[in-house]
Amino acid sequence: WHYILTPIFASIGFYILFFMWKELKNRKLRLMIFSALACYGIAVGLDFIEGLPEAYNQLGAVIGLSGKFVNHFGRVFEEFLEIFGSTVFFMAFLEHYTTISPKTVIVFKDR
Q1: Three-state DSSP class for residue 107
Q2: Closest to 40 in 3D by CA, of 8, 72, 93, 80
Q3: I want to staple 67 with a disulfide (CB 3.0 to 4.6 A). Which of 16, 24, 49, 60 is the partner?
Q4: Phi and psi based region of residue 101 (left: phi greater than 0; alpha: psi -120 to 50; beta: remaining)
Q5: Cα 96 to Cα 12, 25, 84, 102, distances in angstroms
Q6: Whole-number mean pLDDT of the chain?
Q7: Which 8-state DSSP code applies to residue 21?
Q8: DSSP single-letter state for residue 24
Q9: Contact at 8 Å (CB) between 39 and 81?
């Protein structure tokens, strides 16, 4: 799936980066959006490496660990990057929302 969908997702990512770069004036928020997209990109790269035959076995042999351990660690790290990237996106959007509408209040009531 990487050969077909990665160019599409990369195009969407560049569009998001371009659009958000123009929308966000704060350097911190721009860095957060860039970091989130970087997390997604690295996660896709790790997912691609995971599909290569013997990739983790060779890496495990180089660093002195079993291929199974390296494979498991790679999967966990890839999922972590996806979740962390999503969290950074949400935090950037929430912070931006609080700057454009500072008087919004959410009230929870009992039924």
Answers
A1: coil
A2: 80
A3: 60
A4: beta
A5: 21, 10, 18, 10
A6: 83
A7: H
A8: -
A9: yes
Q: Are 41 and 81 in contact (CB under 8 A)?
A: no
CB 94, CB 63: distance < 8 Å: no
CA distance 36 to 49: 20
Q: Tell me the pTM.
A: 0.73
- Which residue shows structure tokens 């700057």? 99
The model's pLDDT over 55-107, given as tens digits with 9 standing for 90+, comes to: 777 778 888 888 778 888 888 999 999 999 999 989 988 888 888 887 877 77
* Closest-CA residue to 7 (of 38, 43, 44): 44
**Distance between CA 95 and CA 69 in Å, rounded?**
38
Residue carrying structure tokens 């009531």: 109
Buried b (16+ CB within 10 A) or exposed e, 17-27: beebeeebeee
Q: What six digits make up the tokens of 103? A: 């008087």
